[in-house]
Amino acid sequence: MTIQEPSVYKIQKFVYIQSRVFILFLFSLSTVGISCLVLCETSKGEKGSTTTKLVVFTVFFIQV
After folding, report:
1. Is the residue at 3 inside a domain?
2. Is the pLDDT confidence value at 14 over 70?
3. 17 near 9, Cβ under 8 Å?
4. 2 in a domain, yes or no?
5. Whose CA is closest to 16, among 28, 8, 4?
6. pTM for this one?
7. What is the pLDDT of residue 6?
8. How many domains does the chain have?
9. Residue range 16-34, pLDDT digits in tens
């Protein structure tokens, strides 16, 4: 058992790092998408309720 423990630990650490990187990637994608949406809405001159809903939803999702 002592021989297998380090490899299992390495795998768990790798999976953990991968998940963190994936979450960061998703977060950056969502922020870029939201900023693009906000820019589009403001350039149109309309304060759309869809953008506000999206921003609120993303903030709520990040909090959870």
Report:
1. no
2. yes
3. no
4. no
5. 8
6. 0.44
7. 72
8. 1
9. 989 898 988 888 888 888 7
Q: Both tokens of residue 42? A: 């403001």
Q: Please measure the distance between the N-terminal and C-terminal CA atoms of the chain and give it in whole angstroms.
A: 37
Q: Give Dmax (Cα) for the chain.
A: 65
CA distance 21 to 26: 9
Torsion of CA 40, 44, 47, 51, to 10 degrees: -20
Question: Which amino acid is located at 36 in the chain?
Answer: C
**The domain containing residue 53 runs over which residues?**
10-37+46-63
Q: Is residue 29 part of a domain?
A: yes
- Is position 19 within any domain? yes
Which residue is associated with the tokens 């350039």?
A: 43
Q: Which helix (H) or strand (E) holds 25?
A: helix 5-44
Tokens of 57: 């939803």
pLDDT tens per residue across span 37-50: 777 766 665 555 66
